[in-house]
Design brief:
9 strands, SAM-dependent_MTases_sf, EC 2.1.1.199, RsmH, Rossmann fold, two-stranded antiparallel sheet, alpha/beta, binds S-adenosylmethionine, disordered N terminus, seven-stranded mixed beta sheet, rRNA processing, DNA polymerase, domain 1
Amino acid sequence: MNEHKPFRQAEASMTQNADDSLRNFEKARMVIKAEKYHVPVLLKESVDGLDIKPDGTYVDVTFGGGGHSREILSRLHQDGHLYSFDQDADAEQNLSGSGETLDNFTFVRSNFRYLKNWMRYYGVEHIDGLLADLGVSSHHFDDEARGFSFRFDAPLDMRMNKRGGQTAADVVNNYEEEQLADIFYLYGELKSSRRIASVLVKERNQGKILTTQDFVNAVQPLFRRGREKKDMAKLFQALRIEVNQEMAALREMLTAATDLLAPGGRLSVITYHSLEDRMVKNMMKTGNAEGKLRQDFFGRVECPFRLVNNKVIVPSDEELARNPRSRSAKLRIAEKK
Ligand SMILES: C[S@@+](CC[C@H](N)C(=O)[O-])C[C@H]1O[C@@H](n2cnc3c(N)ncnc32)[C@H](O)[C@@H]1O
C-alpha cells in the first residue's frame, strides 16, 4: 500500500492545485471586471511564455483591461503573487470597487519606469517573470475625450497619466521646429517630417493648436490622397510616444527587469512599433538597450538572457480576423540565465 502513497499525495495536491486555480480564476474574474476595455493580444502565447510556476512572483507592467493579469492569476496558487502596474486611472477602474480583494494580487498605480523602487517597497528582491504589453489600450483610442484619436475632436492631450507631465498641445506649441521634425521622423517614420514640422510652426504662429481637429486641419493637406489615415495614425503615434516618454520608460523598465529576474525567470514582451521592438530585441540579445555586444576575456558573448523564441511571434490569422488591432503586435520571450 505504501508505494501508492506518493501517488495519492500527488493526486491530492493536483486536485488541490486545480481547485486553487479555479478559485483564483473565479475570484480574478470578480476582481478584474473589464470586458470591453481592451481585447488582450497574443494572450495565450505571451502568458505561456512566462512558463508560470504557481508559487512564483510575477509582474504585469501594463494592466490595461486586465486581460493578461487575469490569465496569469488563473495560473497562480495562493502562495504565488502578481503585481500589476498601470499609470492610467481609467485602468484602475477595471478593478472591482465591491471591496473584493485577492490576497495574491497587488495593483500599482504608477509608471512602470519605477518598477525597481516599487519592488523594493514591497520587499520583493527577485521575480520569476515579467510581462509587458506596450503602448495604449483600445480604451484610449475609443475614449473621445483623451485626444489619442483623430476620429474625434478633443483637447490635444494624449497623456496616459493625467496627473502630470506635458500634453500633446504643449509639445506641438512649444517644441522647436527641428525637435518636432525629429519626433515625427523617429517615432512616426514619416518621410515628410520636416515639412509637417514647418507647417505646424507656421500654423501655431497664427494661433495655438489646442485640439485634435486644429492639428488634423493643419497637417492633412500635406498627406497624399489615399494615405491620409495611415499617415495621420503615424503622426498621432509619434506625438503620443513623445508625450508619454515611452522609449525612456521602456529602457528603464527593461534594465530594472533584467536585474530583478531570478535565474530561469522569463521576460515576455509585446511591442507595436519597430523602435520598441528593436530595443526589446537588443536587451534580450545583449543585455543592453543599444545592442552592444559584450565579450568576456575569452571572446565569448556575455548576455544575461537566453532567447526562448528566435523568431518573433505574431498573431495568428484567426486572431487578426477577430481583433484587427493586434495587427502590428510582435512578441519576444527570453529567459534569465
Ligand atoms: C496595450 S495596453 C495593455 C492591455 C492589457 N494587457 C490587457 O490585456 O488588457 C497598455 C497599458 O499599459 C499602460 N501603460 C503604458 N505605458 C505605461 C507605463 N510606462 N507605465 C505604466 N503603465 C503604462 C497603458 O495605460 C495601458 O493601459
